[in-house]
Every structure is written in C-alpha cells, then in structure tokens.
Design goal:
Number of domains: 2
CATH class of the largest domain: Alpha Beta
CATH superfamily of the largest domain: Peptidase S8/S53 domain
Largest sheet: 8 strands, mixed
Structural class: alpha/beta
Shape: globular
CATH architecture of the largest domain: 3-Layer(aba) Sandwich
Number of helices: 16
Number of strands: 27
Radius of gyration: 22 Å
Distance between the termini: 56 Å
Length: about 550
C-alpha cells in the first residue's frame, strides 16, 4: 500500500494563482474536517446506488482498487478547459481548485469571473476530482453517501474559456491550451481535459485546434477529449478528437457494473479514426452548479442540492481524465504515449462490440496500472498537424457574436489577425473587456472555504445581485450570443460542449434568440431552486413560517 503523508497530499497545491484576469483574495478560514466529516452510519451492503452514481462508476472502471492501494491522484494536477467552476464545498473545502484563470467573455465581470454560470465545467470537475469534505478514499466503500470523483485527491486547474451560454470562440480554446502549456511546469499539470467539439470540417493535419493540443501532448501533458454526441451514424469524430495522438473517449452506458452498451447518441468513427477507449457517460451523477444555465433550464437533471445528472461523451472523457490521474499517481514516470497504450490495452467490451463506437472498450484502470510497457513500444509516430488550415473552417458553421460583431474569418476573438505560426505567446498584451489576459501575478493564496470575495455562496445569490437570465448585478453578459444555432434533439450544438446532453430528455426545442431562453420545459420536480416533491414542501420558508416536512394535503 502506498503511504501518503501530508507533504505528498499537498504537492502541487502550494501555488494558488492569480493570472491574467485572475486576482484572488480569498479568506484563509478552513472548515473543520471533524465537523465536516460524513457519518459512519451507512454501509455499502445496505444501500443500492444508481449505476451512474460515482460510487458505482469508480467500481466499473477499477478505480476503487487503486484507492485501496493508496493511489488517489495526490500530487497530480489536471487542467480543465471548460466553463469554470461553481464554488461548492466538494471543490473548495478540500482545496481542489489549486489555480484558476478566466479567458472567457465574462472575465471583465467581477461577479462572474472564474465562475461556472453554465454548469458544464462543475459537472466535469466533480467527476474528475470532487469529494465530500472530510471523506477518505480508503474508507469510501463503506460510505455510498459520500460523493467522490475518480481521482479524489487530484488538483484542478480551472481554465475558463466559455460564458453562461457555453459560448467560446475557438481562439479562446486555443489560448487556454497555450496557457496550460506555458504553466505546465509551475503548476505540475500532467493531464488536460477538453470536453469540447469545435465543429471543424478540416482534417486533423491542418486544423489549428489539433495543432494546439498536439503541442500540449508533446510537452508531456496527457490530453483527454470527448468523441462527440452526434449519433451512431455520424461516422466521424468531432474535432479535436479526430487527432490520432490524443485520447478520444466514447460514451458507454452501464447496464451492470461489468456490462456496457453503446448509447444511440454516441458518435461513431469512420473505421480509421475511431474512439480510442470508452467510459461510463450515461446518467452520470456529478456536482451541480446552482442557478447555472443548465441547472435553471433543466430541473429534470436535479438529484439533490449538490448533485445533478447528465449524459454525454464529456462525462465519459472526465471519467478517463480522473483515471489517468490515478495511473500517473501510481506510475509517475509514464509519458503520454505510454498512458494511452495502457488504457487501450486494458478494457471491457461494450455491446455491440465494434471499435467505431467504443474503440478498445471500457477502460479498466486497475489492470492498466499493473501492465508494463516501454516508451519505444508505445511511441506514436503519426504526422504532426501543421495547424495552417483556415481558422474560419475550424469554427464550423457557428459563430460567436461579441457586442454585435460576428467573430469570423482569419481573426481572433480579440480582433487581431490570426497567425498559425506561433510560439504560444501571441496572446501577450491582448485585452478582453479591458482586462489583460497575460502578465498577471502569481499569488500565495488558495481556495479554502466556500466563500467568494467574502460573501458566502448560498446557491441563490451572488454578492448583491440576483440571476434573472439576462443581467448580472446590473451588467449585461458581455453581448455574447450564437448565430444560426438551435437546440437539437440530443445536445446543445451551438455551444459545442459535447457533454451537454442532460438525462435522457430532449431539450424541448428551446431556442436561444440572443436575449432570452424560450420554449423551456419544466418537469414539475423543481421550481426556482426549491425542490417540489409533489406532496410536501421540504424545508422551504413560506412567508415567515417554516414548513418542516408536513404533508401538503
């Protein structure tokens, strides 16, 4: 068994960062572990958990076996390029967020900076490394009431590139990747999760986005991406999953802990470039971002005050990302090619058993940790992407609109001319909403308690402002919207975040018209943040009297 002392668990977390638009001044009060420690009263034998609960998912991929050997991701930091994070206890109280940067259109809005106002990034962070305050991986088997991500002691470096609509131009995503590469050594970033699809029509060999992720791979960062949710008849993976170097993950649905099927919404490969592996990605219960877009518009995903249910290859990619953190904790000298080889060599079959849907199969990380492989045997020798293809083609058919200006052509979101031949420093000196993206200072602070600039997160209110769908503390959401976009039957294709298929329900044909959400559907399970069970008000204050669970006849 691997022993982790206090120094090991703290590895890589001493740098709490302020960078670019980031300026952290958090309180240093840490919640008492004893008071936060979950109860010992529940045993695993007496509780039946959903197959999509993280309690079951970690068993489906063999992660619990590594936990019991002492490998929990400690000292391994994961860059999450996504929509930010919600300051919830499962991410803050254990110091999971070791660093954060905001390259999104919300960077200039103090109340929104770094925060996940969409809901996707929080769900991913929970799957990768979230954990109930006070929970211990070695004892987790007896506590299904605890929430624990795949690598509960890994650190998250949050790189926010998208706003409350999920909107991000491809140049913001590339800037996020460049930022990760530039800060890899300082933050000990070993893994990068990008659950995003650009809509590009380019081959990987010329795609600017694939060139960016290859630079991260060559720099020693394991890159995990989502294969897509375009259906079994798509016959093409999303970009950047088309790149053969990275780990492209398809979604599988567990029908039992060792049996998996392929969901009909999972993208298929073309027989040459297929998903590399698969992982559980259907009905996954992870952390909820209270009052985010997804939370407000889709109450059918609500499970509890802290848990939300979602499906997609994004969720599957996050599962694999956490598994990679465990593998690198157990075997820190592995390079990215070796990690990919081991994942592909240790899998379970899906039904149907076809590599165009799930590659080699569903990962078994405990077996992967036991297998030996030389760097020579695992070496990948694909031609490298030049990245010199058209930036406009890489965007696909959807465009971000910023302050009335459509971002299109060979220009970046900052309005500068796109240069495909760059060193990763082209963003220096660029501004977004009046805030510099680079040359920010590093700070010796960190996220400790569930507070935000001195105001405790309540799940209903930020500082003195209330979310009303269009404005945030009197400031409009930076004028961003999407052109030519609509809700599809499976996912929100306008944002290109490939995991945003929530539960099994369609998005009810709601359309974003640039000013409000229309046509949204409520299932009767929750209303304005308060859970309605159909028979009672549960702890909801009614005028000045508190209902305490009495049945409402």
């Amino acid at each position: 068994m691997k022993a982790h002392n206090a120094t090991q668990h703290g590895k890589g977390r001493r740098l709490a960062i302020g960078v670019a638009t980031l300026l952290l001044a958090m309180g240093a009060t840490t919640a008492s572990k004893a008071s936060a420690a979950p109860s010992d009263r529940v045993t695993a034998k007496k509780v039946s958990m959903p197959l999509g609960s993280m309690y079951r998912v970690v068993d489906q991929i063999g992660a619990r076996d590594l936990w019991e050997e002492g490998y929990t991701g400690a000292g391994i930091n994961v860059a999450l390029i996504d929509t930010g994070f919600a300051p919830v206890p499962e991410l803050l109280d254990n110091g999971k967020i070791i660093a954060a940067v905001d390259l999104s259109g919300e960077a200039g809005v103090p109340e929104a900076r770094f925060i996940d106002n969409y809901g996707h990034g929080t769900h991913m962070a929970g799957i990768i490394a979230g954990s109930t305050p006070g929970a211990d991986a070695e004892d987790a088997k007896k506590h299904p009431e605890w929430f624990m991500g795949v690598a509960p002691d890994a650190g998250i470096v949050s790189v926010k590139v998208a706003d409350n609509t999920g909107g991000a131009d491809i140049t913001q995503v590339i800037a996020g990747i460049d930022w990760v590469v530039a800060n890899r050594d300082a933050l000990n970033i070993r893994v990068l999760n990008l659950s995003y699809a650009s809509g590009s029509s380019l081959p990987y060999a010329t795609d600017p986005l694939t060139a960016a992720i290859e630079r991260a791979w060559q720099a020693g960062v394991v890159v995990v991406v989502a294969a897509g949710n375009d259906g079994n008849e798509s016959h093409r993976l999303a970009s950047p999953a088309i790149d053969p170097y990275v780990i492209a993950v398809g979604a599988a649905e567990a029908t039992a802990d060792r049996t998996f099927t392929v969901p009909d919404w999972a993208s298929s490969g073309d027989g040459t470039r297929n998903p590399d592996v698969a992982a559980p990605g259907a009905h996954i219960d992870s952390l909820r971002a209270p009052l985010s877009r997804v939370d407000v518009e889709h109450p059918e995903g609500y499970i509890s005050e802290s848990i939300f249910r979602g499906s997609g290859s994004s969720q599957a990619a996050a599962v694999v990302t956490g598994a990679v953190a465990l593998l690198l904790d157990a075997r820190p000298n592995l390079n990215p090619d070796q990690v990919k080889f081991l994942l592909k060599s240790n899998t379970l079959n899906t039904s149907p058993r076809n590599p165009i849907y799930s590659g080699s199969g569903v990962i078994q990380i405990d077996q992967a940790a036991e297998q030996k492989v030389s760097a020579k045997k695992a070496l990948q020798t694909w031609p490298l992407s030049t990245g010199d293809g058209s930036l406009e083609a890489a965007r696909g058919d959807l465009h971000l609109v910023v302050n009335g200006v459509v971002i299109q052509g060979e220009v970046t979101v900052l309005g500068s001319t796109w240069d495909p031949y760059f060193s990763g420093t082209r963003w220096t000196g660029g501004t977004w909403d009046g805030t510099r993206w680079t040359d920010g200072s590093w700070m010796g602070t960190r996220w400790t308690t569930s507070t935000w600039t001195g105001t405790r997160w309540t799940g209903t209110r930020w500082t003195d402002g209330v979310w009303n769908g269009t404005r945030w503390t009197g400031t409009r959401w930076t004028g961003t919207r999407w052109t030519n976009d609509a809700w599809s039957s499976d996912s929100w294709t306008g944002t290109r975040w490939t995991g945003t298929r929530w539960t099994d329900d369609a998005w009810a044909a709601a359309i974003w018209d640039g000013t409000r959400w229309t046509g949204t559907r409520w299932t009767g399970t929750r209303w304005t943040g308060t859970r309605w069970t159909g028979t009672r008000w549960t702890g909801t204050r009614w005028t000045t009297n508190l209902w305490s669970g009495e049945v409402w006849e």
